Amino acid sequence: AAAIAPALAGAVAARPEVLTELLLADADCGRDDRTLLRGLGHVSADPVAGPVVDRGVAEAAVGLRDAEHLGSRDPAVAVVAGYTAVREYGQRLAYALDEFAAQERAGLRKHGGDLLMLVGGRFVGPVAALAAVRWNLDGTWEADRDDGRHFPVDEALRATGGAGGAAQAYGQVSAVLGAPTPPVSPGTDWIGLGLALVPGGGRVKDVAEQFHEQLTELRGEDGEAAGAD
């Protein structure tokens, strides 16, 4: 993505209607249009490619200001405000992708921790359990802060000089884009760590799991019986 982003940005800047037509489309645009907007949001967050797309959209908006339009919707305002929403999505997407990469690295570390527990047996196992928590070998990771730029609706209003319809255009494009959801690190398994450190803890864990399974089955049978009654 980083390799092709500058060339893609240059193409969009040369043919800005590829983006502006989407920003002027109805709120119920198709799935392909949503994917394209999201991809352009990703390009807009690139430190090299982003400014190129920014200039292309700004120049297109200037041209739209001089164009005649019907109705109360100003196409220049809609493009500037809508593109602000695209930039906001791109920044949040960049953070989400970083967290997915952190999740993948955590999964690879966990494989090493599981192998150490398996090979170590009952002698090295407790030490390995402590090491897994201390060095994030248990599938957890430290989430980074989202330090990317933010482009809220207030930025769209500022960029359009508070023009009417800017907030509506921003909200429409935001609804089409959706919101990227970064993964969240699971919590540390303190109970599992405690059982690993206690002699015979593995057996206690097995008994507890069997008890839980039997209790779940009983609850299911009671529910079926109540439904039959």
Layout of helices and strands, plus pairs?
Layout: H1 5-14, H2 17-23, H3 31-44, H4 49-65, H5 75-134, H6 153-159, H7 166-177, H8 190-197, H9 201-228
Helix pairs in contact: 1-4, 3-5, 4-5, 5-6, 5-7, 6-7, 8-9
Question: Mind explaining what this structure looks like?
Answer:
With 229 residues, this protein is mostly helical. The protein has nine helices and no strands. It has helices spanning 5-14, 17-23, 31-44, 49-65, 75-134, 153-159, 166-177, 190-197, 201-228. The relative contact order is 0.12.
Brief summary of the model shown:
The chain is built from 9 helices and no strands. The chain is mostly helical and 229 residues long.
- Would you tell me the overall average pLDDT? 79
Strand content: under 5%
Q: So what's the overall shape?
A: elongated
Distance between the amino and carboxyl termini: 60 Å
Biggest β-sheet strands, sense, barrel? none
Structural class: mainly alpha
- Percentage of residues in helical conformation: over 70%
Q: What is the radius of gyration computed over CA atoms, rounded to a whole number of angstroms?
A: 26 Å
Based on the structure, what is the oligomeric state of the protein chains?
single chain
The total of helices stands at 9
Low-confidence stretches: none
Record field, number of beta strands: 0
Which sequence of SSEs, written as H and E, runs from N to C?
Answer: HHHHHHHHH
Highlighted features:
229 residues; mainly alpha; 9 helices; elongated
